[in-house]
């Protein structure tokens, strides 16, 4: 039996740039190199960042806003971990973002982790979209619903 060395690459989505600031600070504090795409990044620079993430093994984490990362981007199939930091009221936004990783060229199982605060409106939002879990099984990707 051949053991494969799978390089874990993760994309972290948030609706808020300030949340990405906090995530970036936490990654830096732990010595983790990351790339960032948000509304302040020009389309040309965005392309360069995505190519770096795709082609350079040194970049293992990409943080991005839903508005810049969930629509119209290809080449994210190198990632096999997706973190959604807050549930979206429109489940299509999350489905669109997750769909970026389930394209032709994806060679690994994709794990999706959604975070929600216990006893909050986030918890209601996270669990009100039951059909997303159905999609997970249909599309053969694993989703974790984590409440903290």
From TrEMBL:
<dbReference type="GO" id="GO:0005524">
    <property type="term" value="F:ATP binding"/>
</dbReference>
<protein>
    <recommendedName>
        <fullName>Helicase C-terminal domain-containing protein</fullName>
    </recommendedName>
</protein>
<dbReference type="GO" id="GO:0005634">
    <property type="term" value="C:nucleus"/>
</dbReference>
<keyword id="KW-0378">Hydrolase</keyword>
<dbReference type="GO" id="GO:0016787">
    <property type="term" value="F:hydrolase activity"/>
</dbReference>
<dbReference type="Pfam" id="PF00271">
    <property type="entry name" value="Helicase_C"/>
</dbReference>
<dbReference type="InterPro" id="IPR001650">
    <property type="entry name" value="Helicase_C-like"/>
</dbReference>
<keyword id="KW-0547">Nucleotide-binding</keyword>
<keyword id="KW-0067">ATP-binding</keyword>
<dbReference type="InterPro" id="IPR027417">
    <property type="entry name" value="P-loop_NTPase"/>
</dbReference>
<dbReference type="GO" id="GO:0008094">
    <property type="term" value="F:ATP-dependent activity, acting on DNA"/>
</dbReference>
<dbReference type="InterPro" id="IPR050628">
    <property type="entry name" value="SNF2_RAD54_helicase_TF"/>
</dbReference>
<dbReference type="GO" id="GO:0006281">
    <property type="term" value="P:DNA repair"/>
</dbReference>
<feature type="domain" description="Helicase C-terminal">
    <location>
        <begin position="2"/>
        <end position="140"/>
    </location>
</feature>
<dbReference type="InterPro" id="IPR049730">
    <property type="entry name" value="SNF2/RAD54-like_C"/>
</dbReference>
């Amino acid at each position: 039996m051949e053991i494969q060395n799978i390089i874990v690459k993760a994309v972290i989505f948030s609706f808020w740039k300030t949340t990405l600031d906090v995530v970036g600070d936490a990654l830096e504090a732990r010595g983790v190199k990351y790339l960032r795409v948000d509304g302040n990044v020009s389309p040309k620079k965005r392309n360069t960042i995505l190519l770096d993430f795709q082609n350079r093994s040194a970049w293992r984490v990409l943080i991005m806003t839903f508005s810049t990362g969930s629509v119209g981007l290809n080449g994210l199939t190198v990632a096999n971990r997706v973190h959604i930091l807050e549930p979206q009221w429109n489940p299509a936004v999350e489905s669109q973002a997750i769909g970026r990783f389930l394209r032709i060229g994806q060679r690994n199982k994709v794990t999706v982790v959604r975070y929600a605060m216990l006893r909050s409106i986030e918890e209601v939002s996270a669990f009100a979209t039951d059909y997303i879990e159905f999609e997970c099984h249909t599309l053969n990707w694993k989703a974790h619903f984590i409440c903290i």
